[in-house]
Amino acid sequence: MKKDLLSFSGMAPTDFEEIWLRAARLKRMLKEGKEYASLKGKTLGMIFDKSSTRTRISFEVGMYQLGGIALFLNSRDTQIGRGETLADSARMMSCYLNGIMIRTFAQESVEELARYASIPVINGLTDLLHPCQILADLFTIQEKKGSYEDVKVAYIGDGNNVANSWIEAAACLPLELTLACPEGYDPDARMFKESKKDGKGYVHLYRDPFDAAKNADVLYTDVWTSMGQEAESQERKRIFKNYQINEKLLGVAKQDAIVMHCLPAHRGEEITAGVIDGPQSVVIDEAENRLHVQKAVLEILI
Ligand code: CP
Ligand code: NVA
Question: Which domains occur in the chain, in start order?
C-alpha cells in the first residue's frame, strides 16, 4: 500500500483485499463490543472545503473508536482559507498530526498536499474522485453478494466523482461495470483511458439506462447535481430526467439485484422513494460500511 490514498491509481488487488479483510475484522470486533485502540494517541486532521455528513462522522468516530482523535478543520476558519499555501500547511501539519483527510474541489490540491506532507493523506472526495466511497461500496457488495467478481454493477446518472472512482476501481479489479450517462455528462476521459490500458474489469458506457441496467446485480446512482454545481441544478433536472432508478428500471435488473446510493439522496430525482426505501435497497448498510472500511484504511496508513 502506498503512503496516501488519493486515488486507486497503482493499487494492486492485494491492497484492496488487505483493507477489506481488516475492515471485516474491525466490524466484527465492534459488534462484539471489543475495543481495539490501535491508533491510541494518534491524531487525524480533517480538512473540509465542502459539506459532509457521512465522511465527517465516519472518520471522526472511526478515529475515536481506534483510540485516537480527529480534528475538524473547516478551511474557512483556518489560514488555508486566507491563502496560506498547501505546501506550508502540509509541512507544518505533518509536525502535529499523524494523518490528514481532505475533502475539496480540485484533485490537484489533494495531490499537492500529499506531495509536501510527510504523513498519509486521504482523499475524502474531490470533484474528480471519491475513493473512500467506492472502497465501502465494494465491501458492501461482497457482504451482500459474496464477491465482487461475476457481479454486474450498473451506474446510472452523472459521470461525476463517484462514477470516476468506479471506473478507476475497474482498472484495478475484475469488475463488470456498465454506466449510463447523458451525452455531455460522461465520466472523465482519463479514467476511461486508464481502465482500457490497465483494465482488469469490463467497463461499458451506454446512453440508455435500460441497456446499462439489464441483468445487473447492483443498480447504483448518485445525485444529478454535485457539490459546487448548484447553479446548474435546474438544467440538470431536465437533462437527467430519464436517468432515474425507479421501479421500471429495477424491473430489468436481476430479480435479486441490490440498489446502492452513496447518499445524500434526492427522492423523486435520481431515485424514487419506493426504490430507495424498498426491500432491495442497501443504502444504510453501505453508509455504515464507510466507518469500518475507513478504520481499516486509517490503521493501514497511519
Ligand atoms: N457519501 C458521502 O460521502 O456522504 P457525505 O457527503 O455526507 O460525506
Ligand atoms: N457526487 C456527489 C457525492 C456526494 C457524496 C458530490 O460530489 O456532491
Answer: 13-130+288-301 (3.40.50.1370), 133-286 (3.40.50.1370)
- How far is Cα 241 from Cα 231, in angstroms, rounded to an integer? 17
pTM above 0.90, yes or no: yes
Ligand positioned closest to the Cα atom of 165: 2
Where are the alpha helices (H) located in 156-272, listed in sequence order? Answer: 161-172, 189-198, 209-213, 233-239, 247-252
How does pLDDT run across 141-193, given as a tens digit for each residue? 999 999 999 899 999 999 999 999 999 999 999 999 999 999 999 999 998 88
Contact 46, 77 (CB under 8 A): no
Is residue 103 annotated as a catalytic residue, yes or no? yes
SS3 assignment, position 54: helix
Active-site position among 49, 137, 158, 222:
222
Atom of ligand 2 nearest to the CA of 227: 8
Ligand 2 centre from 161 Cα, in Å? Answer: 7
User: Hey, what's the cell of 91?
Assistant: 509541512
